TrEMBL record:
Pathway: Purine metabolism; GMP biosynthesis via salvage pathway; GMP from guanine: step 1/1; Purine metabolism; IMP biosynthesis via salvage pathway; IMP from hypoxanthine: step 1/1
Keyword Cytoplasm: yes
Origin: domain of life: Bacteria
Compartment list: Cytoplasm
Function per UniProt: Purine salvage pathway enzyme that catalyzes the transfer of the ribosyl-5-phosphate group from 5-phospho-alpha-D-ribose 1-diphosphate (PRPP) to the N9 position of the 6-oxopurines hypoxanthine and guanine to form the corresponding ribonucleotides IMP (inosine 5'-monophosphate) and GMP (guanosine 5'-monophosphate), with the release of PPi.
Keywords annotated in UniProt: Cytoplasm, Glycosyltransferase, Magnesium, Metal-binding, Nucleotide-binding, Purine salvage, Transferase
UniProt-recorded name of the protein: Hypoxanthine phosphoribosyltransferase
Native species: Trichococcus palustris
EC number: 2.4.2.8
Cited InterPro entries: HGPRT (IPR050408), Hxn_phspho_trans (IPR005904), PRTase-like (IPR029057), PRTase_dom (IPR000836)
Amino acid sequence: MLHPDIKEVLYSEEYIKEVVKGLGSQLTEAYEGKNPLVICVLKGAVMFMTDLTRAMACDLELDFMDVSSYGAGMESSGEVKILKDLDTSVEGRHLVIVEDIIDTGRTLNSLIELFKYRKAASIQIVTLLDKKERRVVDLQADYIGVNVPDEFVVGYGLDFNEKYRNLPYIGVLKKEVYE
Ligand code: 5GP
Ligand code: MG
Ligand code: MG
C-alpha cells in the first residue's frame, strides 16, 4: 500500500530489484579476484548495499562510514564531517563506495580525497541514483543505477527527517509534508 505522504512512486520495488541485480553483475565481473572493500555511506545506502552485495558473486569485505552533510533538512552544506570512520585500513585496497544518491557531489568528493590520502589502491563509486543537474563539483560515478530528475526523493534507505527509509520503493513526497 502506498504511504499517504507519497505523491508519486518513481521506482517500484520490482524495478529497483532489476537495477540492483544488473549493477551486481557488472561489479562481479569488475572485482573478481580483487577482494574489494565495499564501503557503505550511512545511513541512506544501507538497503542498497545489502541488496547489491548479495548480487555480487565475488569475494568482498564490508565496512561502513557515516558522514554528515545534510543534517535534518534538504540542502547540502558543503562541509563534511566524519561521524563514524571505517574499521578497516584502506591502504592498498580496492574500494567500492556505495551511495544512495549523488546530488551536489560534495560528500563523495571529500570521501574520495580522504581515501586517496590514505593510499587506497583504487576507488570506484556506485550510486543507485544520480541527480546530475545538481552537481556543483566535478565528480562522476563509475556505476549508476538510474538518473533521477531534480526532485527530493525518499524510500529504499532515503529519508526525510529520518523517516521513510523503510519504504520498499522510491517516491516523491507530497509538498505539504516538507513545507
Ligand atoms: P551531496 O553531497 O551529493 O549533495 O549529497 C549526498 C547526500 O545527500 C545523499 O547521500 C543523501 O543522503 C542526501 N540527498 C541528496 N539528494 C537527496 C534526495 O533527493 N532525497 C534524500 N532523501 N536525500 C538526498
Ligand atoms: Mg548517502
Ligand atoms: Mg538524509
